[in-house]
Amino acid sequence: MSDLTLGFMAIGVMLVFIVLGMHIGIALIITSFASVLVMRSPEIAARFVGAAANDAIRDYLFGVVPLFVLMGMFVSVSGVGRDTFDVFQWLLRRLRGGLGLATVGANAVFAAITGISIASASVFTKVAVPEMIRHGYTPRFSVGVVAGSSVLGMLIPPSLLMIIYGVIAEESIGRMFLAGVFPGLVLAGLFALLILVFAYLMPGKIFQGGVQRSETDHDAETWGSAAIKFVPILLLVTLVLGGLYSGFFTPTEAGAVGAAGSFAIALIRRRLTWRKLWSVLTETGYVSVAVLFLIAAASLYSRMLALTGMPAAITTAITEMGLGPWGFLVAYLAIVIALGCIIDSVSIMLIMLPIVLPIASSFGMDLIWFGVLTVLAVEIGLLTPPFGVSVYTVKSALNNPAITIRDIFAGTFPFVLVMVLTLVVLAIFPGLSTWLARM
Question: What is the residue extent of each domain of the chain?
């Protein structure tokens, strides 16, 4: 049996393990170790595992993972999400579909300090959905706009998926963050445009009975009270992203400053008890360890694939097939979106990137642009059945038996179409993703 055949078999076995419910990191390690053992020897396989684990997470750069996670956790407990939604609700109260627009706007701002879509989905399900239903929005649209706009958390920096991509592709995480800014704003803008089209041209799609109820509950809000609510989040975003983009902070330093700033906000607002602090720290530990473990497993997997010669063989095969760069890109994005229906975002990146990055490089593709397309395609999987992590997060946080999983998937469908449109636009015009990162 050739090394190349063994490599393909290892991928097949790994996918079977994942479908059967095995943790993605364990599946990667077991199949990679077993493959190297068969190709070489038990001693080399053991050294392979040790070297991969050591090299994968010893870099100072990996401190960015727990720090940005910690910042997002502090922000979640400080009540900033609720205040951000209140401000946008007040600003947009005169527009049709104002609450839907407020949800998208608040999600976009919240994304700039959390980097985790699930956090956004959980927070705004509790904040926005009851408010929208109370004002006559259909339950299907209410949950759909929350789940749909939650994906902004993985595109607008800081983004956990951008960090993972930067590590695997060996690209600057700071540049990856910069590359996600404009595409994230474009996607948020298209979401808002979709809501306006529904509100003014097809009101029956989002309002019960096709008629919007008054949204003037927040008329008592003033510019002063809105500023008090919004200034802390604005200062945090400016401090972290401004310092990062100006070059004053490295990504790791920006994460540390953001964690300290969000901790101060939670203290000043008196939202942080000892119990909540312990919960934040332990949850940060759980998330960070899980991510770093996956990165170590992915490093071993990448080395195993390189040892089999699979990336080079696939590159040669695609070249001989005459697909060209566009044929390869379309096929790759279609596979990623299809995989999103059955496995989670991080798993898709860990499985696919070690195979496709050498191919993308051989076609001369900009790996920053390729990363933005990858993250957006992966995010579509958060909203597609049967897996749809964001959909199940909304269902869990809502705790309303009258709204079914089917309702949420149906509500997110228009937003999935917008994401596919955005993916096509970003693929055709690479400069939209790279102009800021290459400055």
Answer: 3-434
